[in-house]
Amino acid sequence: xxxxxxxxxxxxxxxxxxxxxxxxxxxxxGGLMRTGEQPHSxxxxxxxxxxxxxxxxxxxxxxxxxxxxQDFNLLVDTISQNKEFLEQTLASTIKVDDxxxxxxxxxxxxLEEGLAQTVFLGINRSDYMFDCGVDGTTALKQIEIxxxxxxxxxxxxxxxxxxxxxxxxxxxxxxxxxxxxxxxAKGLALGIAKAWELYGSQSAxxxxxxxxxxxxxxxxxxxxxxxxxxxxRVIRRRxxxxxxxxxxxxxxxxYMDGQEVAVVYYREGYVPQTYDQQNWEARLLxxxxxxxxxxxxxxxxxxxxxxxxxxxxxxxxxxxxxGHPEAVARMRATFxxxxxxxxxxxxxxxxxxxxxxxxxxxxxPQREGGGNNxxxxxxxxxxxxxxxxxxxxxxxxxxxxxxxPALNYxxxxxxxxxxxxxxxxxxxxxxxxxxxxxxxxxxxxxHLLRTKAIEHADGGVAAGVAVLDTPYLV
Length: 474
Ligand code: ADP
Ligand code: MG
Hints:
Blueprint: H1 6-9, H2 12-29, E1 32-34, E2 45-47, E3 50-51, E4 55-57, H3 59-67, H4 69-80, H5 83-96, H6 98-113, E5 119-132, E6 138-146, H7 159-169, H8 173-176, H9 184-199, E7 205-209, H10 217-229, E8 234-237, H11 239-245, E9 246-248, E10 254-256, E11 259-266, H12 277-288, E12 292-294, H13 297-302, H14 305-311, H15 316-320, H16 325-332, E13 338-340, H17 345-356, E14 361-365, H18 376-386, E15 395-399, E16 406-411, E17 419-435, E18 438-453, E19 467-469, E20 471-473
Parallel strand pairs: 4-20, 7-8, 7-11, 11-12
Antiparallel strand pairs: 1-2, 3-16, 5-6, 5-17, 9-10, 10-11, 13-15, 14-15, 16-17, 17-18, 18-19
Helix pairs in contact: 2-7, 5-6, 6-12, 9-10, 11-12, 17-18
Magnesium ion is lined by residues 127, 143-144.
Subunit structure: Homodimer.
Catalytic activity: gamma-L-glutamyl-L-cysteine + glycine + ATP = glutathione + ADP + phosphate + H(+); gamma-L-glutamyl-(2S)-2-aminobutanoate + glycine + ATP = ophthalmate + ADP + phosphate + H(+)
Binding site for Mg(2+): 144, 146, 368
């Protein structure tokens, strides 16, 4: 283990002291979450789970991830404007996957009517793991791009200071000074503010479209507060509120409770369970409106696993981004093996391979939010069951990334302090704004490191599996 964290692990008394300091520092810094017992109130809160120690990340891979983010922003934005590509790519999926099909129907419906929206705002997070080769080298491999409701850009800004303090307490002042500051919420707010400004109505508000159960509200408040600092009004509403009180005027301006909405920032809307008939109607209303949706429905579709798999086919990136060979090469370098399970010979072959050697792959449905993927024996069982049915088409296969584990402590309220073998996932936030055809902003906005114990194959921070972390670059 680099940077001498090994000596820390050998000293349980020092670890206990440091953990107590760490938890209080996280609370003081605002690294907070509502509790599972009282998710609707901020009367009682916990600290958002985090690692005791920052995790070692190879500097070269960290820089590579930042360097490719503007390319991914451009790619997502380009796909969102390419109807033919989305139609072709998702054709097989929407036959069998109801959720994607419904999103797609709204997409087609708003295109047919003609878009009222002229300013576009993307906030995404490209996630990676550090794949460890047999020769011990590590490579940056993309897990996925989240194009809707990419979270923890607020809370993650709190962890570097906490980890700096922990390292000092452990006698590692020099190492503490090397931790990078990081504030994605500020960058995200900058994008939202730019979109709001281009929308061009001083009195219009930004609407955060939020969940029924809002445990992660503090993460969102970080972005909200950055907007208030710029004197931009923010309101928080649920789909249900939009159904009951949202309306469009003749030029399809969106109004909520009589206030014009310039930007709709979705922190909800990416899982089927969100939508009953009324909420689908609310979604349609929002998409039809002139308001800047972050993301618009096309961009949400651009973030599906099926699109990701198609992008890895030789020639696809080149076709989507002619004239950008360097960007294409940078993006392709981060791709892991991805495979279509569409009906036909190609799908038959890879399905057989995965059934024979399930440890090599991950089976992914068209879902977001963690906990949906299948691994190992379960992958084999499911794939055996669906290998000859059209249902197979609703999944993709991906090579399993195998990072080198490192020892750390996962600090979680009401959990015992114990050392775990952990792996990390690095996310880079991207923000862009387009007005008509012109990209007026395209930036990387900061990073998120999440770490989990190796016994969990899947799941993020919100799912209670991963915890917040800080990269320690070597
Ligand atoms: P979701 O949209 O549900 O977040 P992801 O593709 O990000 O789906 O997968 C969820 C989690 O599963 C990731 O955070 C990662 O921990 C794990 N995972 C996903 N793909 C792979 C892979 N190819 N190799 C290893 N682990 C993976
Ligand atoms: Mg994910």
